[in-house]
Structure prediction request, 335 residues.
Amino acid sequence: MSKKVVLVTGANSGIGLALCERLLTHSDQIHLCLACRNMQRAEAARTALHTSHPGADISLLKVDIGSLQSVLEASKEIKQRYKKVDYLYLNAGIMPNPQISLKAFVTGLFSRKVISMFATGEGLLTQQDRVTADGLQEVFVTNVFGHFIMIRELEPLLCQPGNTSQLIWTSSSNARSSAFRLDDYQHTQGVEPYSSSKYASDLLSVALNRHYNKQGLYSSVICPGLVMTNLTYGILPSFFWTLIMPIMWLIRIFTNTFTLTAYNGAEALFWLFNQKPESLDPRAKYHSYTSGLGNGYTKPQKMDLDEDTAETFYEKLLELEGRVRDKHRAQEDRR
Ligand SMILES: NC(=O)c1ccc[n+]([C@@H]2O[C@H](COP(=O)([O-])OP(=O)(O)OC[C@H]3O[C@@H](n4cnc5c(N)ncnc54)[C@H](OP(=O)(O)O)[C@@H]3O)[C@@H](O)[C@H]2O)c1
Prediction:
Protein backbone atom coordinates (compact mmCIF):
# COMPACT_ATOMS: atom_id res chain seq x y z
CA MET A 1 0.00 0.00 0.00
CA SER A 2 1.49 3.33 -1.00
CA LYS A 3 1.72 6.06 1.60
CA LYS A 4 -0.88 8.83 1.67
CA VAL A 5 0.64 12.17 0.66
CA VAL A 6 -0.54 14.88 3.06
CA LEU A 7 0.38 18.51 2.39
CA VAL A 8 -0.27 21.08 5.11
CA THR A 9 0.15 24.83 4.55
CA GLY A 10 1.13 26.86 7.61
CA ALA A 11 2.43 23.66 9.24
CA ASN A 12 5.19 25.23 11.33
CA SER A 13 3.06 26.50 14.20
CA GLY A 14 -0.31 26.49 15.94
CA ILE A 15 -3.14 24.38 14.60
CA GLY A 16 -1.20 23.21 11.51
CA LEU A 17 1.67 21.85 13.59
CA ALA A 18 -0.71 20.21 16.07
CA LEU A 19 -2.49 18.52 13.16
CA CYS A 20 0.83 17.13 11.93
CA GLU A 21 1.55 15.71 15.40
CA ARG A 22 -1.85 14.07 15.50
CA LEU A 23 -1.56 12.59 12.01
CA LEU A 24 1.84 11.07 12.76
CA THR A 25 0.55 9.59 16.03
CA HIS A 26 -2.37 8.10 14.11
CA SER A 27 -0.52 6.57 11.15
CA ASP A 28 2.97 5.73 9.94
CA GLN A 29 1.61 5.24 6.43
CA ILE A 30 1.73 8.92 5.52
CA HIS A 31 4.20 11.20 3.86
CA LEU A 32 3.85 14.61 5.44
CA CYS A 33 4.87 17.71 3.52
CA LEU A 34 5.18 20.88 5.61
CA ALA A 35 4.47 23.81 3.28
CA CYS A 36 5.82 26.94 4.96
CA ARG A 37 7.13 30.36 3.97
CA ASN A 38 9.99 30.40 6.48
CA MET A 39 12.38 27.45 6.14
CA GLN A 40 14.01 27.95 9.53
CA ARG A 41 10.64 27.68 11.23
CA ALA A 42 9.75 24.74 8.97
CA GLU A 43 12.99 22.95 9.91
CA ALA A 44 12.32 23.57 13.62
CA ALA A 45 8.83 22.08 13.19
CA ARG A 46 10.27 19.02 11.46
CA THR A 47 12.80 18.56 14.25
CA ALA A 48 10.03 18.78 16.86
CA LEU A 49 7.93 16.24 14.95
CA HIS A 50 10.91 13.90 14.59
CA THR A 51 11.55 14.15 18.34
CA SER A 52 8.09 12.76 19.09
CA HIS A 53 7.98 10.52 15.98
CA PRO A 54 11.49 9.34 15.09
CA GLY A 55 11.70 8.07 11.53
CA ALA A 56 8.52 9.84 10.41
CA ASP A 57 8.46 10.57 6.69
CA ILE A 58 8.45 14.37 6.56
CA SER A 59 9.55 16.76 3.83
CA LEU A 60 9.63 20.54 3.64
CA LEU A 61 8.34 22.80 0.92
CA LYS A 62 8.97 26.52 0.67
CA VAL A 63 5.87 28.48 -0.24
CA ASP A 64 4.64 31.97 0.46
CA ILE A 65 0.91 31.59 -0.20
CA GLY A 66 0.62 35.37 -0.51
CA SER A 67 2.85 35.45 -3.61
CA LEU A 68 1.76 34.12 -7.00
CA GLN A 69 5.35 33.47 -8.09
CA SER A 70 6.04 31.45 -4.97
CA VAL A 71 2.82 29.41 -5.27
CA LEU A 72 3.61 28.59 -8.90
CA GLU A 73 7.18 27.56 -8.07
CA ALA A 74 6.06 25.45 -5.10
CA SER A 75 3.34 23.76 -7.17
CA LYS A 76 5.91 22.90 -9.85
CA GLU A 77 8.10 21.39 -7.15
CA ILE A 78 5.18 19.33 -5.79
CA LYS A 79 4.43 18.01 -9.29
CA GLN A 80 8.04 16.93 -9.63
CA ARG A 81 8.06 15.21 -6.22
CA TYR A 82 4.70 13.40 -6.16
CA LYS A 83 2.39 11.52 -8.48
CA LYS A 84 -0.66 12.30 -6.34
CA VAL A 85 -1.72 14.37 -3.35
CA ASP A 86 -4.29 12.66 -1.11
CA TYR A 87 -4.89 15.46 1.40
CA LEU A 88 -4.31 19.16 0.93
CA TYR A 89 -4.82 21.08 4.17
CA LEU A 90 -5.36 24.76 3.30
CA ASN A 91 -4.50 26.02 6.75
CA ALA A 92 -2.10 28.97 6.44
CA GLY A 93 -3.82 32.19 7.40
CA ILE A 94 -3.26 35.71 8.63
CA MET A 95 -5.11 38.34 10.61
CA PRO A 96 -2.77 41.35 10.23
CA ASN A 97 -2.72 44.27 12.66
CA PRO A 98 -5.87 43.31 14.51
CA GLN A 99 -7.48 46.20 16.33
CA ILE A 100 -9.84 45.55 19.13
CA SER A 101 -12.65 47.93 20.01
CA LEU A 102 -12.09 48.36 23.75
CA LYS A 103 -15.57 49.79 24.18
CA ALA A 104 -17.15 46.79 22.45
CA PHE A 105 -14.88 44.49 24.48
CA VAL A 106 -15.82 45.92 27.88
CA THR A 107 -19.53 46.10 26.99
CA GLY A 108 -19.39 42.55 25.62
CA LEU A 109 -17.56 41.22 28.66
CA PHE A 110 -20.53 42.04 30.86
CA SER A 111 -23.24 41.03 28.40
CA ARG A 112 -24.90 37.73 27.51
CA LYS A 113 -22.92 37.79 24.25
CA VAL A 114 -19.59 37.31 26.01
CA ILE A 115 -18.99 33.77 24.77
CA SER A 116 -19.92 34.42 21.16
CA MET A 117 -17.85 37.62 21.28
CA PHE A 118 -14.76 35.62 22.24
CA ALA A 119 -15.58 32.73 19.95
CA THR A 120 -16.26 34.72 16.76
CA GLY A 121 -14.80 38.17 17.40
CA GLU A 122 -18.04 39.61 16.04
CA GLY A 123 -18.31 43.35 16.50
CA LEU A 124 -14.92 43.36 18.17
CA LEU A 125 -12.19 42.92 15.64
CA THR A 126 -10.99 44.96 12.70
CA GLN A 127 -7.77 44.55 10.71
CA GLN A 128 -5.54 46.67 8.50
CA ASP A 129 -4.95 45.01 5.16
CA ARG A 130 -2.33 45.88 2.55
CA VAL A 131 -1.73 45.35 -1.15
CA THR A 132 0.80 42.68 -2.21
CA ALA A 133 3.39 42.90 -5.01
CA ASP A 134 0.82 41.14 -7.26
CA GLY A 135 -1.58 44.03 -6.63
CA LEU A 136 -3.99 41.96 -4.50
CA GLN A 137 -5.30 42.36 -0.95
CA GLU A 138 -2.97 40.40 1.32
CA VAL A 139 -5.58 38.79 3.57
CA PHE A 140 -7.64 37.63 0.58
CA VAL A 141 -4.57 36.19 -1.21
CA THR A 142 -3.16 34.42 1.82
CA ASN A 143 -6.39 33.03 3.20
CA VAL A 144 -8.10 32.23 -0.10
CA PHE A 145 -6.67 33.06 -3.51
CA GLY A 146 -3.10 31.73 -3.13
CA HIS A 147 -4.60 28.43 -1.98
CA PHE A 148 -7.03 28.50 -4.91
CA ILE A 149 -4.15 28.88 -7.38
CA MET A 150 -2.35 26.01 -5.69
CA ILE A 151 -5.43 23.78 -6.08
CA ARG A 152 -5.71 24.73 -9.76
CA GLU A 153 -2.02 23.99 -10.30
CA LEU A 154 -2.22 20.65 -8.51
CA GLU A 155 -5.39 19.52 -10.28
CA PRO A 156 -3.67 16.59 -12.05
CA LEU A 157 -2.36 15.27 -8.72
CA LEU A 158 -5.62 15.85 -6.86
CA CYS A 159 -7.87 14.37 -9.55
CA GLN A 160 -6.30 10.96 -10.11
CA PRO A 161 -8.56 8.31 -11.69
CA GLY A 162 -9.59 5.71 -9.08
CA ASN A 163 -8.38 7.86 -6.16
CA THR A 164 -10.25 10.33 -3.98
CA SER A 165 -8.51 13.41 -2.58
CA GLN A 166 -9.56 15.91 0.05
CA LEU A 167 -9.16 19.67 0.33
CA ILE A 168 -9.61 20.78 3.94
CA TRP A 169 -9.83 24.49 4.73
CA THR A 170 -9.22 25.98 8.16
CA SER A 171 -12.06 28.46 8.14
CA SER A 172 -13.55 30.17 11.19
CA SER A 173 -16.83 30.95 12.91
CA ASN A 174 -15.74 34.55 12.24
CA ALA A 175 -16.74 33.90 8.59
CA ARG A 176 -19.77 36.17 8.24
CA SER A 177 -21.84 36.96 5.16
CA SER A 178 -22.29 40.54 6.43
CA ALA A 179 -18.52 41.12 6.01
CA PHE A 180 -18.44 39.76 2.45
CA ARG A 181 -19.52 41.46 -0.78
CA LEU A 182 -19.42 39.84 -4.22
CA ASP A 183 -18.66 43.23 -5.79
CA ASP A 184 -15.73 43.70 -3.39
CA TYR A 185 -14.68 40.10 -2.69
CA GLN A 186 -11.09 41.16 -1.89
CA HIS A 187 -12.52 43.46 0.78
CA THR A 188 -10.70 46.58 -0.40
CA GLN A 189 -13.25 48.87 1.23
CA GLY A 190 -14.12 47.33 4.57
CA VAL A 191 -12.29 46.86 7.85
CA GLU A 192 -12.97 43.14 8.35
CA PRO A 193 -10.84 41.45 5.66
CA TYR A 194 -10.34 38.36 7.85
CA SER A 195 -14.04 37.69 8.30
CA SER A 196 -14.61 38.34 4.59
CA SER A 197 -11.81 35.98 3.55
CA LYS A 198 -13.07 33.17 5.76
CA TYR A 199 -16.58 33.54 4.34
CA ALA A 200 -14.98 33.50 0.88
CA SER A 201 -13.23 30.19 1.67
CA ASP A 202 -16.60 28.72 2.73
CA LEU A 203 -18.19 29.80 -0.56
CA LEU A 204 -15.24 28.50 -2.54
CA SER A 205 -15.38 25.11 -0.84
CA VAL A 206 -19.04 24.70 -1.82
CA ALA A 207 -18.25 25.66 -5.45
CA LEU A 208 -15.20 23.37 -5.59
CA ASN A 209 -17.38 20.42 -4.61
CA ARG A 210 -19.76 21.23 -7.40
CA HIS A 211 -16.98 21.42 -9.97
CA TYR A 212 -14.65 18.66 -8.81
CA ASN A 213 -16.61 15.90 -7.03
CA LYS A 214 -17.06 14.00 -10.29
CA GLN A 215 -13.27 13.89 -10.58
CA GLY A 216 -12.88 12.43 -7.08
CA LEU A 217 -11.88 15.70 -5.36
CA TYR A 218 -13.83 16.79 -2.26
CA SER A 219 -13.61 19.99 -0.25
CA SER A 220 -14.56 20.67 3.39
CA VAL A 221 -14.24 23.57 5.80
CA ILE A 222 -13.66 23.48 9.51
CA CYS A 223 -13.69 25.90 12.42
CA PRO A 224 -11.05 25.16 15.07
CA GLY A 225 -12.84 27.13 17.82
CA LEU A 226 -10.94 29.67 19.85
CA VAL A 227 -7.33 28.48 20.03
CA MET A 228 -4.36 30.18 21.69
CA THR A 229 -1.81 30.50 18.87
CA ASN A 230 0.46 33.18 17.38
CA LEU A 231 -2.61 34.46 15.56
CA THR A 232 -4.71 34.98 18.70
CA TYR A 233 -1.74 36.26 20.71
CA GLY A 234 -1.47 39.01 18.07
CA ILE A 235 -4.93 40.33 18.99
CA LEU A 236 -4.21 41.50 22.54
CA PRO A 237 -1.00 42.28 24.42
CA SER A 238 0.36 39.06 25.98
CA PHE A 239 0.02 40.36 29.57
CA PHE A 240 -3.69 40.79 28.90
CA TRP A 241 -4.07 37.19 27.77
CA THR A 242 -2.20 36.05 30.88
CA LEU A 243 -4.59 38.14 32.96
CA ILE A 244 -7.78 36.75 31.43
CA MET A 245 -6.53 33.18 30.90
CA PRO A 246 -8.06 31.83 34.17
CA ILE A 247 -11.43 33.23 33.01
CA MET A 248 -10.95 31.60 29.61
CA TRP A 249 -10.32 28.17 31.18
CA LEU A 250 -13.35 28.71 33.41
CA ILE A 251 -15.56 29.59 30.41
CA ARG A 252 -14.28 26.46 28.69
CA ILE A 253 -16.09 24.35 31.25
CA PHE A 254 -19.38 25.77 30.02
CA THR A 255 -18.80 26.27 26.30
CA ASN A 256 -17.55 23.81 23.72
CA THR A 257 -16.11 26.43 21.31
CA PHE A 258 -13.23 27.34 23.65
CA THR A 259 -10.89 24.65 22.38
CA LEU A 260 -7.91 26.73 23.57
CA THR A 261 -5.14 24.21 22.84
CA ALA A 262 -3.86 23.71 19.28
CA TYR A 263 -4.30 19.94 19.80
CA ASN A 264 -8.03 20.36 20.46
CA GLY A 265 -8.34 23.05 17.77
CA ALA A 266 -7.02 20.54 15.21
CA GLU A 267 -9.76 18.05 16.17
CA ALA A 268 -11.99 18.60 13.10
CA LEU A 269 -8.99 18.66 10.72
CA PHE A 270 -7.92 15.31 12.12
CA TRP A 271 -11.46 13.90 12.16
CA LEU A 272 -11.86 14.70 8.46
CA PHE A 273 -8.70 12.76 7.68
CA ASN A 274 -10.55 9.60 8.71
CA GLN A 275 -13.82 10.24 6.89
CA LYS A 276 -15.00 8.96 3.55
CA PRO A 277 -15.22 12.28 1.65
CA GLU A 278 -18.28 11.10 -0.31
CA SER A 279 -20.21 10.88 2.96
CA LEU A 280 -19.51 14.49 3.99
CA ASP A 281 -22.00 17.33 3.67
CA PRO A 282 -20.54 19.98 1.30
CA ARG A 283 -22.70 22.69 2.95
CA ALA A 284 -21.57 21.89 6.49
CA LYS A 285 -18.78 23.46 8.47
CA TYR A 286 -17.09 20.92 10.73
CA HIS A 287 -16.43 22.40 14.16
CA SER A 288 -13.77 21.37 16.64
CA TYR A 289 -15.43 21.34 20.06
CA THR A 290 -14.08 20.61 23.52
CA SER A 291 -16.21 19.29 26.37
CA GLY A 292 -16.07 20.66 29.90
CA LEU A 293 -13.74 17.78 30.76
CA GLY A 294 -11.38 18.78 27.97
CA ASN A 295 -12.28 16.05 25.45
CA GLY A 296 -12.33 17.01 21.79
CA TYR A 297 -15.08 16.10 19.33
CA THR A 298 -16.31 17.22 15.89
CA LYS A 299 -19.79 18.35 14.91
CA PRO A 300 -21.13 19.69 11.60
CA GLN A 301 -23.20 22.86 11.33
CA LYS A 302 -24.98 24.05 8.19
CA MET A 303 -23.33 27.13 6.70
CA ASP A 304 -25.19 30.37 6.06
CA LEU A 305 -24.62 30.63 2.29
CA ASP A 306 -26.31 29.93 -1.01
CA GLU A 307 -25.06 27.98 -4.00
CA ASP A 308 -25.68 30.78 -6.52
CA THR A 309 -23.42 33.18 -4.61
CA ALA A 310 -20.81 30.41 -4.35
CA GLU A 311 -20.98 29.82 -8.10
CA THR A 312 -20.76 33.53 -8.98
CA PHE A 313 -17.80 33.92 -6.64
CA TYR A 314 -16.11 30.92 -8.26
CA GLU A 315 -16.53 32.48 -11.70
CA LYS A 316 -15.05 35.73 -10.41
CA LEU A 317 -12.06 33.84 -9.04
CA LEU A 318 -11.51 32.17 -12.42
CA GLU A 319 -11.59 35.60 -14.08
CA LEU A 320 -9.12 36.96 -11.55
CA GLU A 321 -6.90 33.92 -12.03
CA GLY A 322 -6.82 34.61 -15.78
CA ARG A 323 -5.92 38.28 -15.26
CA VAL A 324 -3.24 37.55 -12.68
CA ARG A 325 -1.67 34.82 -14.80
CA ASP A 326 -1.61 37.11 -17.88
CA LYS A 327 0.07 39.85 -15.86
CA HIS A 328 2.56 37.38 -14.46
CA ARG A 329 3.39 36.00 -17.92
CA ALA A 330 3.90 39.53 -19.26
CA GLN A 331 6.28 40.27 -16.37
CA GLU A 332 8.20 37.06 -17.05
CA ASP A 333 8.50 37.94 -20.77
CA ARG A 334 9.94 41.37 -19.92
CA ARG A 335 12.68 39.78 -17.77
N1 LIG B 1 -6.37 30.49 16.50
C1 LIG B 1 -7.68 30.59 16.35
O1 LIG B 1 -8.44 30.80 17.34
C2 LIG B 1 -8.31 30.41 15.00
C3 LIG B 1 -9.70 30.48 14.90
C4 LIG B 1 -10.29 30.31 13.65
C5 LIG B 1 -9.50 30.05 12.54
N2 LIG B 1 -8.14 30.00 12.66
C6 LIG B 1 -7.34 29.73 11.45
O2 LIG B 1 -6.42 28.69 11.73
C7 LIG B 1 -5.36 28.74 10.78
C8 LIG B 1 -4.04 28.50 11.49
O3 LIG B 1 -3.82 29.61 12.35
P1 LIG B 1 -3.25 29.46 13.83
O4 LIG B 1 -4.28 29.92 14.75
O5 LIG B 1 -2.65 28.11 14.01
O6 LIG B 1 -2.14 30.60 13.83
P2 LIG B 1 -0.56 30.55 13.55
O7 LIG B 1 0.12 29.76 14.58
O8 LIG B 1 -0.17 31.97 13.35
O9 LIG B 1 -0.45 29.74 12.19
C9 LIG B 1 -0.59 30.35 10.94
C10 LIG B 1 0.32 29.64 9.98
O10 LIG B 1 0.12 30.19 8.67
C11 LIG B 1 1.41 30.51 8.15
N3 LIG B 1 1.33 31.56 7.16
C12 LIG B 1 0.86 32.82 7.30
N4 LIG B 1 1.01 33.51 6.17
C13 LIG B 1 1.60 32.67 5.29
C14 LIG B 1 2.03 32.81 3.95
N5 LIG B 1 1.90 33.95 3.27
N6 LIG B 1 2.59 31.75 3.33
C15 LIG B 1 2.75 30.58 4.00
N7 LIG B 1 2.39 30.39 5.27
C16 LIG B 1 1.81 31.43 5.91
C17 LIG B 1 2.22 30.93 9.36
O11 LIG B 1 3.60 30.93 9.05
P3 LIG B 1 4.65 31.88 9.85
O12 LIG B 1 4.98 31.15 11.11
O13 LIG B 1 5.78 31.99 8.89
O14 LIG B 1 3.93 33.18 10.10
C18 LIG B 1 1.81 29.84 10.33
O15 LIG B 1 2.50 28.66 10.08
C19 LIG B 1 -5.47 30.10 10.09
O16 LIG B 1 -6.05 29.93 8.81
C20 LIG B 1 -6.45 30.86 10.98
O17 LIG B 1 -7.15 31.85 10.28
C21 LIG B 1 -7.53 30.18 13.87
Observations:
- Strands lie at 4-9, 30-36, 58-62, 87-90, 99-100, 125-126, 165-170, 217-223, 284-290, 296-302.
- The chain has a mean pLDDT of 94.
- The CA atoms of residues 99 and 176 lie 18 Å apart.
- The pocket of NAP is lined by residues 9-10, 12-16, 36-38, 41, 63-66, 91-94, 142, 170, 172, 223-224, 226-227, 229-232 (CB under 6 Å).
